[in-house]
Amino acid sequence: MWFQRAVKLGDGDANLQIAKIYLLHERDQQKAIKYLEKTIKAVYVTDGSIEEASRLLKQLRKTHR
Fold first, then answer.
1. Residue 65's pLDDT is what?
2. CA-to-CA distance for 16 and 36, rounded, in angstroms?
3. Is 2-63 a domain of CATH 1.10.8?
4. Which residue intervals of 1-65 are DSSP H helices?
5. Domains of the chain, residue spans
6. From the CB of residue 15, how many other CB atoms can be counted at a distance below 10 Å?
7. What are the CA-CA distances from residue 59 to residues 2, 6, 23, 30, 44 (Å)?
8. How far is CA 56 from CA 1, 9, 11, 30, in A?
């Protein structure tokens, strides 16, 4: 809930945290991919989050082939 509020306030890094929750706890890769893509496209996001989101997306896309 807090990460979703942060996203609404413009915190792009929170998208990455939501994606990790979907990956680790919910086991929902499709939703995780959606939030990883949002992380990369966000206006206010750190370079580290973009790099991590890109790496995770690459790994997930390899497993979906």
1. 61
2. 6
3. no
4. 2-8, 13-21, 29-41, 47-63
5. 2-63
6. 25
7. 27, 26, 12, 13, 24
8. 22, 24, 19, 12
End-to-end CA, the chain: 32
The two tokens of residue 11 are 């915190």
Separation in Å, CA 45 to CA 3, 16, 37, 62: 14, 10, 12, 25
Backbone angles phi, psi at 45, to 5 degrees: -150, 145
At residue 63, the pLDDT reads 79
Tokens standing for residue 32: 């995780």
Each residue of 5-63: pLDDT tens digit?
999 999 999 999 999 999 999 889 999 999 999 999 999 999 999 999 999 999 998 87
